[in-house]
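From the shared-data thread, chain only:
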Amino acid sequence: MSSTVSIKSKKEFEAFFKLHYSDMVRYANKFVYRTDVATDIVQEAFIKLWEARETLLLTVSVKAYLYKIIYNLSLNYIEQIKVHARHHESIYTDLMQLEVDYYKDEKSLLQEERLVLLRKMLKELPKNCYEVIDLSRLQGLKNKEIANKMKLPLRTVETRIYRCISKLKDLAHRAG
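Structure, as tokens:
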């Protein structure tokens, strides 16, 4: 190695480790903001250094080399966290959509059941009652428009609507 510090022996490596370990953990922590992760990163960097000690040809100091490894490992960790966050966000979004779809389908099912029940109850109403409710509630006409269309006094239309709604409530109460 073309470095001023030799780390070929276990004793030299341990001395270098003890001298620089704390500073390197602080350096890694500046990127990852978690001491436990910074510690893991520094340990991994030292392992890489130890495993490459025989074949490593450095143009910079061993310390600078380790800082570069720590920097790269920290960036890899940050990128991994971002990927996990995107993945979790994607899962969360998918789950939220499933929940929305579930409740939408559930609501649609309930609405369909209610509509079936309403149609059944409407068939049980007298014909004149059904016509008024159909025009009022299902077609959305105003009472005056219904009166004109059926050629009935406005008060008669209002009375029929009231009576029909009362009958529907009674039928619904008996059905439910």
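The mean pLDDT is 83.
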